[in-house]
Amino acid sequence: MNEPSQSGFGNESASPAIQRAAIAHSAAPGPVDRLSFLRSTAPVRATRDSTLVPLNLEEGAVAPHAQMLEFGEWEDPEGMAADADVTVMRDIHGKALAYMTVILGTIKQVRDDDDPSLNDAGRLKVLAKVVEPKLESFAVEVGKEFKRIDESIAQERAAIVQEVRPTDPYDIAMQAEIRSHFAALPDNKRNAEMTKVLLGQDLDTATLQALALAPAYLSNLLPSQHERAHAALAKRLAPERVKRIEALQASKQRAGKALGALDKYANQLIDFKKARGLIERENKRSGA
Fold first, then answer.
1. Cβ-Cβ contacts under 8 Å for 175 (sequence gap 6 or more)
2. Please, what is the angle between helix 239-269 and helix 120-163, to 10°?
3. Is residue 212 part of a domain?
4. Whole-prediction pTM value?
5. Alpha-carbon distance 220 to 232, whole Å?
6. Which tens digits make up the pLDDT trace of 248-268?
7. Does 16 have pLDDT greater than 70?
8. Domain count, the chain
């Protein structure tokens, strides 16, 4: 995946706390007064005396509390740091934060541009032209990687299906009888047996296979009980694959959270729809 460019590159309004912090600084002279081309200046601070505002314009950085709460802290799944797919998700998480700093840097450049022909509309158009294509390109790349993660998870699940099948002829022959036995149990006794699985007191492997690898109704199990038996069987006979599935799911979720925060703040600051309208009207006037 491409690295974020240093040359510049959705969740409308900020929280009440952030808005109050912005109002407290709205009368202060200096660069913060020149941000009216943005949709909302509430998340941006140009001074260091507020810890509530998540984006620091002058330093081009996301405040630590926003990194933790909004983008989320990256944590490698135990024992999976070297996994190639986990590494890709880790990179996406980091790049989402890096793109946010690039957006802040671009805002600062547009704000500080002393071109007298640039009014608010002009600055918004410049900002959107630089930022939006990069966000769209990043989203496309992330979509491809997320799809690849889903394919990896599907491959692991398919492998689990093969690995948990019984191979002992005796166990195979006994499965129908085991299911019939469970189906005939009084509800309270059947539920008690399945509670053992919930408590980690697993049934023997042959019984788990009989219950998990056939439709739930053959053993008179509830859907949740059937899922529980299948999960326990997979964890017993294919623990490394189960571990990898859980790691990939957690990594994708963390990367997705960071991507969501990037989209939230970008759209909170920049009215891309308005900018597209301005650009479209400009193109019509120029005959482009």
1. 166, 206, 209, 210, 213, 214
2. 170
3. yes
4. 0.79
5. 18
6. 999 999 999 999 999 999 999
7. no
8. 2
